[in-house]
Write a structure and sequence with these properties.
The complex is a heterodimer of chains A (179) and B (189).
Chain A lengths: L6 H4 L5 H19 L5 E4 L2 H4 L10 E7 L4 H16 L5 E7 L6 H11 L5 E5 L4 H8 L6 E2 L1 E6 L2 E5 L6 H12 L2
Parallel strand pairs in A: 1-4, 2-3, 3-4
Antiparallel strand pairs in A: 2-6, 6-7
Helix pairs in contact in A: 4-7
Chain B lengths: L1 H7 L17 E3 L4 E2 L9 E6 L5 H5 L1 H11 L6 E5 L11 H11 L4 E4 L6 H4 L3 E2 L1 E6 L4 E5 L15 H10 L13 E3 L5
Parallel strand pairs in B: 3-4, 4-5
Antiparallel strand pairs in B: 1-2, 1-5, 3-7, 6-9, 7-8
Classes of the chains: A alpha/beta (179), B alpha+beta (189).
């Protein structure tokens, strides 16, 4: 990974200590130059990402795997954004895990986040060895997207399908949140 | 709500390794109907559910041509099937399939699963999704083409080649199943 090309990410998470000053400056100038306000975290390796699927606390995590190239995913994204807005103050957290392509980050992925003003947490998972990590996400997953995982501690629900409306998503989340 | 709960624990129906697939009769881009039984002197089939529009399918187009050129010589031709409903995804309609076939000069048939009756029997969930059958239509391998969809240069294992060689040698493919990312098959809701 080249540090310069992913500076908006590295400034926030990885390399925080050694590059903090430099990246802060670059990040600020980046912000100023294009008015970019959407942060996302990039993971090159699944192993570094995996902890997001197993956070041990009393928050309910709603993890959606999507991509800008996936029609049904893009269609249901507003429901996740609505959920993100509505659960403010509750112990529910939405994480949007994008499987967008590395070569399209600048041209497609970032413009999409900006245009749609995505407010939920966004994660970009680039690990190309999908064959090795699909079962680690959930053994029920065939590999098609979108999928949504809702979990709290050890309780977990999995859906390999898109939601037709907000209520469907909310009901699915409540199978864990209100359980 | 019931549907949603049921969908929470999806059981992917369709064939598992060891099952015997049912032959089908689907229209090729040439306008002719094709069945597996039409193939003479083959040792099996590399059935690939794929389409025009899914980026993962597109990434594999050139590799699929090369794959067919390798495996057809060994008696395992690629049989590509588009499972998507063109009402949902117009770019996957029959005319678009014909265009793509001509444009890429696919050396294999590209069949249209009209009415979406075949893919559920296989249990395909995404494009691309591979099923290797032997000549008795027994399912011998299900899954990905190789282990590096996004980068052809990064391929370290060609699962389909390996499975074809194993079957020819009278062995079980190893692995017999793999999983890869793909686009969900497009159906009307």
């Amino acid at each position: 990974m080249t540090k310069t090309s992913y500076i908006y990410k590295t400034s926030l998470i990885k390399y925080r200590y050694s590059y903090m000053r430099l990246t802060s400056i670059l990040f600020l100038s980046f912000l100023c130059s294009i008015g970019y306000s959407q942060n996302f975290t990039t993971y090159e390796k699944f192993d570094d990402f995996e902890h997001l699927l197993h956070q041990e606390n009393d928050t309910t995590y709603v993890v959606n795997f999507w991509a800008t190239w996936c029609g049904p995913c893009v269609k249901e994204l507003p429901y996740f954004e609505e959920l993100h807005r509505k659960v403010e103050g509750k112990k529910i957290k939405v994480i949007l895990v994008s499987l967008d392509f590395k070569r399209q980050i600048e041209k497609k992925f970032i413009p999409f986040l900006q245009k749609n003003n995505i407010k939920s947490d966004v994660v970009l998972l680039l690990d190309p060895k999908e064959v090795e990590w699909i079962d680690k996400v959930d053994t029920r997953w065939s590999g098609a997207i979108p999928i949504t995982i809702v979990y709290k501690g050890d309780e977990r629900a999995f859906l390999e399908e898109d939601f037709a409306n907000y209520t469907e998503l909310e009901n699915f989340v409540n199978t864990i949140y209100k359980h | 709500m019931f549907c949603l709960m049921a969908a929470t624990y999806p059981v992917h129906g369709g064939y598992h390794v060891g099952d015997t697939a049912q032959d089908f009769k689907l229209m090729n881009v040439s306008g002719d109907f094709v069945s597996l039984s039409d193939y003479k002197d083959v040792e099996g089939y590399v059935v690939v559910f794929t389409c025009n529009t899914c980026p993962y399918s597109v990434m594999y187009e050139d590799r699929l041509i090369e794959l067919h050129n390798r495996t057809a010589e060994k008696g395992f031709p690629v049989v590509a099937i588009n499972p998507n409903d063109p009402d949902v995804r117009p770019g996957d309609n029959f005319a678009s399939m014909q265009e793509r076939h001509t444009e890429k000069n696919f050396p294999f048939v590209y069949l249209f699963d009209e009415g979406q009756k075949v893919y559920p029997k296989f249990g395909a969930t995404k494009t691309p999704h591979v099923y290797i059958l032997d000549k008795d239509l027994k399912v011998r391998y299900i899954g990905a083409i190789d282990d590096s969809a996004k980068d052809p240069a990064g391929v370290s294992v060609n699962y389909v080649d390996g499975a074809v060689d194993a079957i020819k040698a009278g062995k079980k493919p190893s692995p017999e199943t793999t999983k890869a990312i793909g686009c969900s098959i497009k159906v009307k809701k």
